[in-house]
Amino acid sequence: MAAIAPETRMGAVHLTVSDLARSLEYYEGVVGLQVHGRDNGDARLGTGGEDLLVLYEEPGAQPAPRNTGLFHFALLVPSRHDLARWLAHAANDQIPLEGLSDHLVSEAIYLRDPDWHGIEIYRDRPRAEWERDGEFVKMATLPLDVQGVLSALEPGAPAFELLPRGTTMGHVHLQVNDIPSTERFYTDLLGFELQARYGDQASFLAAGGYHHHVGANVWNSRGAGPPPPGSAALRHATVLLPDEDELERVSEQIPDAQRDPSAGTTVTDPAGNKLVLAVAHKD
Description:
Elements: E1 9-17, H1 20-31, E2 34-39, E3 42-46, E4 51-57, E5 62-63, E6 69-76, H2 80-92, E7 99-102, E8 106-112, E9 118-124, E10 132-133, E11 136-137, E12 142-143, H3 146-150, E13 168-175, H4 179-189, E14 193-198, E15 202-206, E16 214-217, E17 231-232, E18 234-241, H5 244-252, E19 258-260, E20 264-268, E21 274-279
Parallel strand pairs: 1-4, 5-17, 6-9, 13-16, 18-21
Antiparallel strand pairs: 1-18, 2-3, 3-4, 6-13, 7-8, 7-12, 8-9, 10-11, 14-15, 15-16, 19-20, 20-21
């Protein structure tokens, strides 16, 4: 399998939530996204450009933390200054956080929405600063230098209101039930390149030499199945390809791919996680 096009990146993540009004209050007021549109109980959110998150209401939906599905989706902000503004907002508004980490290639803040969906807000270090260990990118989980991040705030910077327009869906980290079969699917069929591996616990895969567009781990889900119907869970993640030719080429490599000319190609990984392959809109 030839490598997937280096311009490939992640698009909108689609989630089920139990109370749409509650979720919108959280994603607007806490995370800093804005609503792009609403339709029949759904809501599309982002930062004014392409959609980054799509929420679907299913009253009574419960989290499924021990099944396969979403570990977290990761919003990539353009700069350390942007991360600092969000971190100051979290401190000022006493937003509960799950963690603050330095991953060598990035600096990251973790939190959870009201339905227990994992969220990461992060900034990348310049690629020239990334180190490699043989074929793999060196990553780690170290304590975040909080004061160092906050030092990037500019004097007199306005109070945080929204994530900046340049925010993108940097990566999606999935819960899977087995690492070897997951690696085979994402490398042999989709054409992502393996960038890091933590034994039989986790793998990180990407296009174009990025540290990871897709993460996969078994920390909560080894041997598990997909969430029960009606769960507050991942519906699908989106992989954006640069053009129709690349979409066609990749789709043809995947058995049981479901083609829809208007929506893209839906594929399912060995853990039952659904991906929609689509063409990125040109600016």
